[in-house]
Amino acid sequence: MAEAGIASRRKSEELITAGHVKVNGDLVTTLGTKVTSKDDVVVDGVPLNRAKLVYYLLNKPRGVISSAHDEKGRKTVVDILADEVTTRIYPVGRLDYDTTGLLLLTNDGELANKLTHPKYEVDKTYVAKVKGIPSNDELKQLRLGVKIDGKKARPAKANILNSDSKKGTSIISVTIHEGHNHQVKKMFEAIGHEVLKLHRESYGFLTLKGVPAGQWRELKTSEVQQLRKL
């Protein structure tokens, strides 16, 4: 229902439990009821037609919310595409308000759920500007997995790209395949280095090549197929 643009996922659940949905003529009020493309789904007497699946890659700028809607009226990543994309889409995972870089948007809920599930181990590479210059021992902690929010994060790849002893900062590449809230920032906080800037430069095999900040492009069919293989 959410993918067809009827309502948000949460609102769709409310419609189901309130008795607004029929499948093959039978009233359905149980959440999680399985349906296929062969089933007739009707919401308040209106047949549900699934929208064409679409996939976009955005180079998210700073100061934009990774959400389809924002209660405070702030600009969202969906707003950036709104002039040209009329299909209801939503971001795959999130980037913080002040984090920039690669973000996928789609209406393919099945693929989005798999891409964000830790068990599929899709690599996400970030470049972080941090305070101080982490020692080898501190980087080793990231590579072994540090504790954040009381739980041990999975091992990450971490390497110093550049450092400035005068300014007391360094640029570090870090690759993770989880997506907990503020994860990269919390990982560096755990080893005593505050993140000043954060940019996601790749998601699996996808990069931002040819996509400037604030711009986007539609994924190629071959790229969508490759994402499914991940």
TrEMBL record:
**Domain named RNA-binding S4: residues:** 1-52
Q: Is Metal-binding one of the keywords UniProt gives this record? A: no
Name the SUPFAM superfamilies for this protein. Answer: Alpha-L RNA-binding motif (SSF55174), Pseudouridine synthase (SSF55120)
Q: What InterPro entries does its record include?
A: PsdUridine_s_RsuA/RluB/E/F_cat, PsdUridine_synth_cat_dom_sf, PsdUridine_synth_RsuA/RluA, PsdUridine_synth_RsuA/RluB/E/F, PsdUridine_synth_RsuA/RluB_CS, RsuA_PseudoU_synthase, S4_RNA-bd, S4_RNA-bd_sf
UniProt keywords (A-Z) are: Isomerase, RNA-binding
Top-tier EC class: isomerase
Please tell me whether the keyword Isomerase is annotated for this protein: yes
Origin: domain of life: Bacteria
Q: Where is the signal peptide?
A: none
EC id: 5.4.99.-
PROSITE patterns, per the entry: PSI_RSU, S4
In terms of PANTHER family, this protein maps to: PSEUDOURIDINE SYNTHASE FAMILY PROTEIN-RELATED (PTHR47683), RNA-BINDING S4 DOMAIN-CONTAINING PROTEIN (PTHR47683:SF2)
Q: Which family does it belong to?
A: Belongs to the pseudouridine synthase RsuA family.
Record-given protein name: Pseudouridine synthase
